[in-house]
Each structure stands twice: as C-alpha cells, then as structure tokens.
Amino acid sequence: MIELLASRYAYALMFVLMGVGMYMMIANQNLVKKLIGVNLFQTAIFLFFVAVAYVEGGSAPIVPTEGDPGAMASPLPHVIVLTAIVVGIALTAVGLALIVRIHSEYGTLREDTLREVRADE
Amino acid sequence: MSNVDLILPLLVAVPILMATVPIALGLRFDRTGWGVTTLTTTGLLAATAYLASAVYSEGMVTHELGGWPREFGIQLVADEFSTLIALLVIATATAVLAYMRVGGPRGNTFYAGYLLLTGGLLGLSLTGDVFNMFVFLEIVGLATYALIASGDGPESAVSALKYLILGTVGASLYLIGVGFIFMATGTLNMQVLSENMSEVIAQGGQNLVLMQAAFAFIFVGFALKVAQWPLHTWQPDAYQHAPDGVTPVIAALVSTVYAYALGRLMYTVFGPEFLTSTPYLTEIVVTFGCLSVLAGSTLAVIQTDVKRMFAYSSVAQFGLVVTAFGLVTETALIGGIIHLVGHAVMKAGLFAAAGVIAVSYGARTVDEYAGLADNRPFVAGGTALLLIALIGIPPSAGFIGKWYIAVGSVQAEMWPVAVVILLSTMLTLAYSARLLEKMYFTPATPVESPHPSGPVATDGGQSGGDDEHGNERGDESAGHVDTGAFTDTGRIGRGNPDAVSFGMLALVIVAAIVAVLLGFAGGELHDLLDPFATEVFN
C-alpha cells in the first residue's frame, strides 16, 4: 500500500483534488465558489493526463533531426490538456457571465438566498 | 463521387465559421441572423442529403483531417448510424427555424449561438476520435447553455448555470474515461480501438481493468448528459425555462446526440464482446435505463406545467434508449436508434406546440389547456397526434421503436424489460390522456390566468407589428375564437393568436405527420441500419 502510494502518488493526489472540487461544487453556497470548484475538478483531470504522459527518465518530446533522442514523454496527452484548458476557460467565461446576470437580477450570489427569493415569487 | 468525403469537414467547419457572420453583419444591419442561419442550414441539409445518398448506396465514407493517418490525426466518419443522426440534426435545425422566424428569440448573437450548436452537433455525430468527441461535447454544451440563458426571465440564467455545472461534470467524467482508454491502448481513434479491443479482452489483466474503469466513467458521464434518473435534475429546469423557440431544438437534438455518442462508444469502441464479457455490465446499464423509464414517466404524470411534463417524459424515453443499448442484441440496438430518431421528431413537435399554445392561448399548465380543441383546432390536433405517437399506438414512430426494443429484450431473454416497456406505455398514456382530456373534453374556463399576455420568453413577438409574416394563420385562428363564442366573453382576449405565424404552426403539423409516417417506415429504417448492426455484431 505504502509502496503503491510512493510510486503512484500523482494519481492519488489527482483524486484528492477532484474530491475537493466536487465538494466545493456541492457544499458551497456561493455560486462563484461553485464555479471555482468546477475549475478545480477539471484541473485535477488535466494533472491526471500530464501524469499519464510521464516516462521515467524521459526528456521533453522534441525530436532532433539526427541522432537517437532516447526515451521521451508522450506528447499527445499534453496536446489534449492544452485543448481541454481552452475548453475550460470558455466554460468559466460562460459560467461567470451567467452569474453576473443572476446577480443583477436577484442581487445575490448565495444559493440559499437565491432559493428563498425564487420561492417568494 | 470521388470527393464526397470532403463534405464531412465542411459540415463541421461551415456552421462554426458562419456563426461569426451574423455578429459581423450585426455591426451594420439589425436583423440578418435568421437569413444567414437559414441559408447555411439549408445548404448543409442539401450537402448532408448528398452524403447520405452516397453512404447508403456505397457504404462508409471517412475523411482524415489534414491528411494525418488515423493513428495520429482526427478522423471523421459517416457510416449508416452517424449519417442518420447527422441528417436528423440538420433537418430539425432547419425546420425549427420556421418557428423562430416569428416565435423568437431574436438577435444576431442568438443566431451565432444557434449555428455554433448546429456545428457542434454535426461534429459530435461525425467524429471518429474519442478526444475530439469531448471537444464537441463541450462546444455543444456551451452553445446550449448560452441558448437556454437567452430567455428573458431570470430563471433561465439560473437553470442554465445549473446545467453548466452538471454538464461540465458529465463531460469531465467522460474525459477521465478517455484518459483510461488512452492508458490502456495508446490510441484515441475509435476504429483502431475497436480493432484492438478483442486483443485487450484476450490478454485480460491490467489493461482490461483500465477499460472497465473507463467504461464506468464514460457511462456515468453520459448518464448525466443524457439526463438519466437520478442524474436528470438539470433537465426539467433547463427545458422549462429555455425560450419556447429553443426548447424544441434542445429537447430534440442535444440529448439525442449525446445518447448517440453513448451508443457509438458502447458499440464501436467497446463492442458487444466487451459488454457481454464484463460481469454485471449489461445488467447495470439495463437497470439504470429501466429505472429512468419508470421514474421519468411517474414524475411526468404528476407535473402541472406542460413543458416540465414533456421534459420528464424525455427522461423516460431516453431511459428506453439506454435500456435498448444495454440489451446487446442487434434488434434492440436498431430499436434504440429508431426510438432515438422518433423521439426527436415527436419532442420537437410537442415543444413547438407548447410554444404555440403559450403564445396563442396563454396556456402553460395542464389545467389551462381546457377547451383548446374548440379554440385552436389545428395546434390541438397536431398535439393530440404527437401525443398518440408518443404513447406508441401504431402506426407511429413511438410504436416501431418500442416494438423493436421489446423484441430485442425477448431475444436477450430479459423479460422484465418487456414488462417495463409495457408499464412505460401505460404511464405515457396516463400523462398524455390528462392533456387530451383537457384539450378535447373540458370546456374552457374563464381566464383566471396567472400568465398575463406576454409573460413568455418569446414576447419579442408581442411587440409584434414588426413582422409582416405574423398574420396569415393568425386570422384563421381568430375566426375560430369567434365560432367558439358560446362561452363567456372573457376568454376571447386570452392569448394572442396573431402572434402565431404559419411557420410555427407548420412545424407542429409537419412533425406530427412525420411521426406518423415514420410508423410506416420501420422496415426501411431497419434495412438502412442493418449493415451497421451486422458489422458491430460480427
């Protein structure tokens, strides 16, 4: 068990971070913090992909024109993470725009207050 | 025919590029969005029809983007399954524009979002790469959130945010699944994956466990996206608070294409061998689907808001599709696909009808539908026909889908599923009958309507004289109000029949007719999809 944690700690950390993000999404009443939770959740997945690409003793995947470069980290997950980061930024932007609108309509960012306001209507 | 594969990237790129045009033109002109969008989708419809004729006569068409071999690059694939869904997407997207012309919502930015959604949906149905699928999932998601939030009320922003958070979690879970697939096989191309799959199963060990974990994450992620009970909570809010013109598109296409993606992953990437050899997998999928069917139908019966009722009904119908995918027989798979298409047509029509009735009759709850048939006979007739099709009375789209799924469940010797299908039909009858009874047999009551005219997201149409098309059908409906004048006069002022255009009504009627015609086309659809199913199972 200890050995597993010592060699695979990146994956364990990823799931811890994901749990933190998930908990923020569910338990936090503030809408902006919920969105930060979503971001944390996604970041955990990005780190997971980076960890997948790691090769023991590998170098950065830049192939020289001649000579054997030896072991290299896999470049594909990095490209995936870059794309996913862009997607995540777009999502955050849309989410924040919606939160701005909710705030201007209801005057609150808290979910419990929001529920009360909506129940009154 | 040599360049038919070039249509594939164009189907994805053109709508996304054209999405910038309404905004750019919007700097100079006010109302260009509808024209640009109609032009684009009509062109794409023609291109897709040409593609479909090639696919169904000569088999699969593929395109490698940028000429990269499929092991490294992204491949677009049009086979019998994806072409059918692409055709459904673009045809529905074009048809709903007839509603939006007058029914709204308006604005150049709205149509930019609409084109993005169309491009994303087409990409999602045509992609042959699991990571590319994630990107399109998010494009579709983002466009959907924006379109839902384009409603006037503040409620729409709240429900869009709820959908955004849950939808992102769903897509992220899918991405984790993709990570596990990549760890196990080192490739992201669906066809390469399916070729490697039997090897992974034969080897067993670590890679197989990774694939099983991947399936678990992907299934839960898509269950969230497709709105399976108990992960459906975003869906009724989103459907109810979206503008009336947007709900038909979202209800008909977004969840449908997500369900298509789930089916594609289950059958092309994982394959029947994996599904049946993994212990308890099919049982879990089928149980999930059946629970959705029962819970969704039951919740639909107790709703008072009509759009919400239809939303819960979608939970149930997608439960049927997921059940069909979980049965892993050829007949059930084809039945699931047919039900997917049939449900899309019926729900597009029903939500459009709900929009028309909300504008022209001021009715949004089941009780307010009283006396509809006397006052608005055309839309009431269309709604009734669509509801009957949804129940699954032959000949209709709802019937053939359920029929194939039921036959598949018997073939798979999963008798309880056949019972669930029967029960779901009865529950569908329960909520449909409530509406039918109100529309046809309950006399209209004087308006105590909590919805004064123009409370709806479409109230752009109320400001109304700005649209010359608004009057054709409106005059006719107004005539019917007069013939129904034996009840009290307070009702005459109810709603605004003039706000309903010919296009809005035509969408409802055409959807109803297509839903019935599909009932006769069961054999043809089966033949079209048969090559796909045969290839998957052999």
Automatic annotation (TrEMBL), chain A:
Q: Which Pfam families does the record cross-reference, listed alphabetically? A: Oxidored_q2
Q: Which NCBIfam families match?
A: PRK07375.1-6 (NF005621), PRK07375.2-3 (NF005624)
Q: State the InterPro entries in the record.
A: CPA3_antiporter_subunitC, NUOK/Mnh_C1-like
An example GO CC term for this entry is: membrane
Which keywords annotate this record?
Answer: Membrane, Transmembrane, Transmembrane helix, Ubiquinone
Membrane-spanning segments: 6-26, 38-55, 75-100
Q: Does the keyword Transmembrane helix apply?
A: yes
Q: Lineage, please?
A: Archaea, Methanobacteriati, Methanobacteriota, Stenosarchaea group, Halobacteria
Name of the protein in question:
NADH-ubiquinone oxidoreductase chain 4L
Q: Does the keyword Transmembrane apply?
A: yes
In which broad location class does this protein mainly occur, judging by the first location in its UniProt entry? membrane
- Subcellular location(s) of the protein: Membrane
| Organism of origin | Natrialba hulunbeirensis JCM 10989
Q: How does it sit in the membrane?
A: Multi-pass membrane protein
TrEMBL record, chain B:
**Span of domain NADH:quinone oxidoreductase/Mrp antiporter transmembrane:** 128-428
Q: Which UniProt keywords apply?
A: Cell membrane, Membrane, Transmembrane, Transmembrane helix, Ubiquinone
Location, primary (coarse class): membrane
- Give the start-end ranges of region Disordered: 446-490
| Protein's membrane topology | Multi-pass membrane protein
- Entry keyword Zinc: no
Molecular function GO labels? NADH dehydrogenase (ubiquinone) activity
A Gene Ontology cellular component where this protein is annotated is: plasma membrane
Q: State the Gene Ontology BP annotations.
A: ATP synthesis coupled electron transport
Q: What InterPro entries does the entry give?
A: CPA3_Na-H_Antiporter_D, NADH_UbQ_OxRdtase, ND/Mrp_TM
Localisation per UniProt entry: Cell membrane
Q: Where are the transmembrane segments?
A: 6-27, 34-56, 76-98, 110-127, 133-151, 163-184, 204-224, 245-267, 279-302, 314-338, 344-363, 375-394, 414-433, 499-521
Pfam family for this entry, one = Proton_antipo_M
Where is composition skewed (Basic and acidic residues) in this entry?
A: 466-479
Q: Which PANTHER family match?
A: NA(+)_H(+) ANTIPORTER SUBUNIT D1 (PTHR42703:SF1), NADH DEHYDROGENASE (PTHR42703)
What is the official name of this protein in its record? Answer: NADH/ubiquinone/plastoquinone
